[in-house]
Sequence to fold (515 residues):
Amino acid sequence: MVHTGSVETSGINAPRAGARAWFALVVLMLPVLLVSVDNTVLSFALPEIAIDLAPSGAEQLWIIDAYPLVLAGLLVTMGTLGDRFGRRRMLLIGATGFAAVSVLAAFAPTAALLIAARVLLGFFGAMLMPSTLSLLRSIFLNRDQRRMAIAVWASAFSAGAALGPIVGGFLLEHFAWGSVFLIAVPVLIPLLIGAPLLVPESRDPEPGKIDPISIVLSMATMIPVVYAIKSFAVDGPTIVAAGWAALGAVMGVLFVRRQLRATSPMLDMKLFRRGTFSGAILVNLLSVVALVGFLYFVPQHLQLVLGMSPMLAGLALVPGMLAIIVSGLTVVPISRRVPPHLVVPSALVFSVIGYLLVAFTTAGHGPIPLILAFVVLGLGIGAAETISNELILSSAPASKAGAASAVSETAYELGAVLGTAILGGIITAFYRGALAIPHEVPAGAAHTARETLAGAYTTAQQLPEPLGSALWDAAASAFEAGITVTALIGAVLVVLAGVIAAVTLRTPRSQRPVL
Fold:
């Protein structure tokens, strides 16, 4: 059965889905869980990869960056192609390719081949994410059920992020680094079996012509922008980062102009004129910035400052991830009675409180304040993510669900790199500025210690006592001072998301549920 989306039947009074649809949801959660785990697990394997493959500094960066760069550049293209050729078909092609390339990556004999495998993983990964979210639109026509399905779908992201450090720690304690790639195979095989049986095909009934120039322009927009953000995060404001950002901006202008002039655009720019669509995307992006920024500096504090093992630090984050999941599910019945321009800002108040707890209770305390802060932060993020994703899908025509989902996923990827670049860059800058290195520390060691907290930790271990302890105490103090400032800025970003939600997410009374 193929759902074309030619008639818009989705809404509060649409037919309710049966048990088969919920089994299909379980199948669609598998690639989401996998991609989310993959985003965090590789960082744990990087030290062993560096020892085994001996990559250069540039190759080591590309091992990490190749995947998100290609993924971000192709999301809109793959979402649009899914609308044209079939979203389930794109999902199955992406899953097959992702599983096969994961095996190649696991046994890559050189850094260059591993980078090539990461590029291909980004290519096939871009087929997975828009397909899973857009298929929910055709499976769950009833809006109440769709809200719940999206909440469950979003919980897979949180579960994957929480499982990443735990799975990574377990695998690397018992197996070689290639095991972090091989986990894709047992996850995707049930998808390849279950999707043809449970997930109906859906596509745009009037897809229009393929526009190769628009595809190239979309990639030429996203890849330079994402690379510029990553470059800024590593090296600060440089001419190179500015040049990449300028190139992406120029290509973006050309892409938008072409879409506005085309009779059958790859991405309908009129969607962005809808306040709920644009507002939900911004809320989505800022929520991810707040979450990823938090997850950038908190694990460092838990592992380096408080001395927790990677697996134990991952377990410490589980309560916060559970809070995100519970909040996303709990907000569904609330959203039936409370309009989004009220429920999202109200939920984000919790996230603001979470960041304030980090700012004023982290220094000199154990892990409990951070664990509690993440729980409170997660209550707001979980609700905001569920509502914003549902509004993005509902604001777009059913025939354009793939493109709308791709925009949502692109916002997620941009939010992830911005969270690291903005909040990660701020805490790094304050750390370097506040670090008072003892005069007795040699110049080379002082330079390493000033670069990162991990560098200071390694350097302190190599210095004689009491000089090593003095350096480490200064580094830990500087990092905690940076956390305070960074958390306050994170709270401001969450407030901004709440204001945007209050202004843009007002839905007409005629579109609200009838109770």
